[in-house]
Request: fold
Amino acid sequence: MVRTAITRLVAAAGVAAVGVALAIGAGGPASAAPKTPAPSGVQVVGGDLPGGKVAVQQATQPRLFQTLYDEVSWLAAAKPQTAAPAASKLGPKYTITVLVKNAPSQVYDLYPTAAGGPRAHRMAKQPGKKVTDGWFYGRLTMPEALRAAGAPLKPKPDTINGGIGGGVGTDISPSSDAIDPVAGVNSFLDQIRRLFLLNGAVLVVVLFGLAGVAFLIRRRV
Reply:
């Protein structure tokens, strides 16, 4: 009877070890999600922009492109954060269209001077698809990013490293202190995976400990 208990404990420990190995393998390259096409540029449309529209290509203005793209790159997969503000509190609207091979891929409305801080709106109707309509709190760098594209907004040089000047196509460096929501989610998931691995390892140690205790009890009997 004791021998049967020991056999079951050792078998359970083996199953736990296999589970840990599978969990480790799940985090490898084979489980990586397929990459989406990289954007080739962005287009900003607003009534008070020079000419009403500004196009920035990644190939010719990479730093300005990255600064503008950072303002909307996280919105596609984000969950809505707030209800739609009153129209009277939004201020001027700037529509950013993300281009992939010069074709529209994503479209967002940005409100850099909204009451209570910048806001972003993801419309339900996106190019070639429909998504969940949602409102978000925008990044604090939004006004300066749009001002770099030519929007006549009040300067806030403290929100982007080194400050910027006005005018279309200003070449600036994106803020290294800005929070990247996508990177934050990836970091959180990585921590959860490590927690599961740790719990699996603890379970294996406990099972082997029980097996040892059962073996000692058998010897005494």
